[in-house]
């Protein structure tokens, strides 16, 4: 019976560790996703502004202004 108690005790400790890991991830993952989106959004927005500026200059005859940061 004592062997079963040890197995259950180790199982409870492992489940508690996994539960703590899941709780920490629940708070960290949204921030990681936000950082990833921001790092993708910046170059795409710059490309879109450059493409929009060059398209406008083709139709208006005026040179396109480069966006300033």
Q: Could you characterize the architecture of this molecule?
A:
Helix content is about 85%, strand content about 0%. The protein contains 1 helix and no strands. The chain has one helix at about 1-60. It is rod-shaped, with a radius of gyration of 27 Å. The mean pLDDT is about 85.
List keywords for this structure.
69 residues, mainly alpha, 1 helix, 86% helix, Nucleoside permease NupC, transmembrane helix
List strands and helices in order, with pairings:
Blueprint: H1 2-60
Question: What distance separates the N and C termini?
Answer: 70 Å
Low-confidence stretches: none
Shape: rod-shaped
Work out the oligomeric state of the chains in this entry.
single chain
List how many beta strands DSSP finds. Answer: 0
Number of helices: 1
Transmembrane segments: 6-33
Protein name: Nucleoside permease NupC
Keywords: Membrane, Transmembrane, Transmembrane helix
Compose a concise summary of this entry.
With 69 residues, this protein is mainly alpha-helical.
């Amino acid at each position: 019976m004592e062997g079963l108690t040890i197995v259950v005790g180790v199982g409870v400790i492992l489940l508690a560790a996994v539960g703590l890991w899941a709780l920490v991830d629940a708070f960290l993952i949204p921030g990681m996703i936000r950082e990833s989106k921001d790092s993708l959004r910046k170059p795409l927005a710059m490309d879109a502004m450059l493409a929009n500026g060059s398209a406008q200059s083709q139709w208006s005859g005026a040179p396109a202004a480069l966006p300033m940061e």
